[in-house]
Amino acid sequence: MASQRDQTSTNHIEIPVYGNVTDQPRQSPIPEGDEDGTFDYSQRTQWLRAAVLGANDGLVSVASLMMGVGAVKQDVKTMLIAGFAGLVAGACSMAIGEFVSVYTQYDIEISQMKREMKANGRTENVEEAKKKMLPNPAQAALASAIAFSIGAVVPLLGAAFISEHKVRLAVVAALVSVALVVFGGVGARLGGSSVVKSCARVLVGGWMAMTITFALTKLIGSSGMQM
Q1: Which residue in 199, 102, 214 sits closest to 166, CA to CA?
Q2: Residue 175 counted as domain residue
Q3: Which sequence ranges are marked TM in the entry (predicted)?
Q4: Helix (H, G, I), strand (E, B) or coil at 183
Q5: With 0-12 CB in 10 A as exposed, 13-18 as middle and 19+ as buried, what is 152?
Q6: Number of domains making up the chain
Q7: How far apart are CA 218 and CA 156, in angstroms?
Q8: Which of 50, 151, 156, 168 could form a disulfide with 55 if both were Cys (CB 3.0 to 4.6 A apart)?
Q9: What angle do helix axes 45-70 and 165-191 make, rounded to 10 degrees?
């Protein structure tokens, strides 16, 4: 009899019962996709990539183009025309590229989801579900064009009001350097990465682009080619 009572007490499991909802232990809300309570910076990847790359590309490409023209032409009008042409062409290129990129990603993922749902015998509206997960192609294209234009305006403004050739080149290089640090820092802060590494990376890359463009254009101009 004693052994039966011991076995019964051993197999007994107590289940806590709460009188009402307020007696239950509270759980802090966790944002979607964050199981440990930390913010998931990867959610910002799509628009952050388009904005940061667009602004940096506009800044570096237009500044390098103007520095290259400035290596062989001293008048400010030529530099500004070249820079403005680079702004328009680059903004259009970024917009088209981003539009095609997002639509390509959209088509690939839709096809993959359709194959998986067909294999599982499911019939949900795949396209409507996927549209909520992916960025709008037109919005991504517009964001890239605007970001590129914002970056490209910096060297144009720096060169517009300076007539002295050498001073103009120095001012453009200085303004671009400051803007690169700002863009790199903003991108790092929004993405949750190292600010110092990001700023150093974009700054060195911008300096290299401007220096190489200036040097090669100067070399071609000094070789006797008519311009």
Answers
A1: 214
A2: yes
A3: 78-104, 140-163, 169-190, 202-221
A4: helix
A5: buried
A6: 1
A7: 20
A8: 151
A9: 170
Residue in this structure with the two tokens 């991504």, named with its chain if needed: 140
By CB atoms closer than 10 A (0-12, 13-18, 19+), residue 27 is: exposed
Residuewise pLDDT in 10s, the chain (227 residues):
444 455 444 444 444 444 443 444 444 343 444 444 454 444 455 566 667 778 888 999 999 999 999 999 888 999 999 999 999 999 999 889 888 988 888 788 777 777 777 777 766 666 666 666 666 788 888 888 999 999 999 999 989 988 899 999 999 999 999 999 988 888 777 767 788 888 898 899 999 999 999 999 999 888 765 55
Q: Which amino acid is at 49?
A: R
Name the CA dihedral angle for 72, 77, 82, 85, rounded to a multiple of 10 degrees. Answer: -170
- Judge whether 23 lies within some domain: no
> Angle at which helices 76-120 and 45-70 pack, to 10 degrees?
150
Residue 95 in any domain: the answer is: yes
